[in-house]
Amino acid sequence: MLKEDLKSSLVSISNQKIRNTPIVIYDVKLIDVIVKDFYDAITLLPNSKLYFAMKANSNKDILKYLSTRIDGVDVASSKELELALNFFSAKNLSINGPAFSVEEIRNISKRGMMYDFNSLTQIELVGIKEDSISVRVKIGESRFGIDIFEAKFKKYCTRNTLKIGKIHVHSETKDNLFIHQLEEIFLELDKGGMLKHIKQINLGGGFLELVLNNQLIDFFEKLSKVYKKFDIRVETIIEPGQALIMLSAYLITKIIDVDCINDIQKIVVNTSAYNLFSWSRPVIIANSSKNTNSLKTIVYGETCFEEDIMCEEKIMPEVKVNDFLIFYPIGAYSQSNHNCLHLLDFPEEILINEL
C-alpha cells in the first residue's frame, strides 16, 4: 500500500504545481537508491561497471542525470548512439543489436568504437581487419547472438586468426539458470583456449526481479564464485534498463469524463493505455477525490480504440471531472515504446527530488 505521506505529496504536486497533464514525474531520489543498490552488489565482481540500457528510456534529462552517476550506456540503434554521445564518451558505450547496417558497423569501427556482432554474416560482410572482435553470445533459445561453439563460426575464426576479445551475454531474467549458462560458456571458452583472450564481459540486463525481491547481493555472490572458479578478473559490465529506471516515475492524469452506468463508474482520462502501456501496465496508486463513497470503476484512455483500458474493475472513490489519477510505475519502456494514435504526443516529463 502506498504510504500516506507519499500519496499526500503526489496529490499535492498534482493540485498545486501541475497545470498541464498528463505528465510523467521522475523521482531522482529513487534513481539514486537503485543505482546505489547496483553498485553495492557489483563490487562483488572484479573491475565491474554499471551501464544503463538506453532502450528502456531515452529522455535527455534522465541521460544527463545518469551521466554523473553511472559508468556508461548501452545503445541499440544509430539514433540512440548519437544521442548517447551527448552525455557519455565513446569509450563508455556498449553498442549492439540487429538494427545496425553493415555501413553503420564499419563507421562505428572507424570512429574507434566497438560493435558487438550479432551474426556471422555481419562479421563476414563488414570484413574485420582487427585480430579481435566483440560478439553477442547466443544464450538459450534467444534469436539474438552468435553460437560461438558452432563449427562454422570456429572455422571462420581459425581461418582468419580471429580472437574473441569481448563477449556480451544477455538474458531476459537473471537467475540461477543464467549463472549455469554463463558457467557453461566459460567452460567451453576455456576448453578451446579462448577464455584467456577475453578482455571484457558484458552481462546485459534482466535484473528487475532481483531488484524487486532485494536479491541483487545474493545473485552477485553466486556469480562471483563462477568468476573465481575460472580466475576471471577482466572488466565486467552490467546494463540494467528497466531495473534501473522503472520504479522512479509516476504518471499524473486528469479525468476528462465520468459516468455511472449500472453502478459501475466509467472514467476517461486525458492519456491512453494504448499509446503508453505497450510493454507493462502500471496501477493506480492515488487520486485527488475527497469523496468517501466507493464504486466499482473502469478507467479508459482517451483514444477511439475500444480496448484502450487504463484500469479495469477497480474499487475506488467516486470522482468528478478534473480530479487527478496517479499511475505507477511508468519509468521504463513507456517513453521509448509509445504509440501516437490521433497524433497524441508522449506526456511532458520532469525530474524532481521533492517526494
UniProtKB/TrEMBL annotation:
Keyword Kinase: no
InterPro entries, alphabetized: Ala_racemase/Decarboxylase_C, De-COase2_C, De-COase2_N, Orn/DAP/Arg_de-COase, PLP-binding_barrel
Residue numbers annotated as active site: C304 (proton donor)
One GO BP annotation of this record: lysine biosynthetic process via diaminopimelate
Positions of the Orn/DAP/Arg decarboxylase 2 N-terminal domain: 34-244
PANTHER family, per the entry: DIAMINOPIMELATE DECARBOXYLASE, GROUP IV DECARBOXYLASE
Family: Belongs to the Orn/Lys/Arg decarboxylase class-II family.
Record's protein name: Diaminopimelate decarboxylase
Species of provenance: Lactococcus lactis
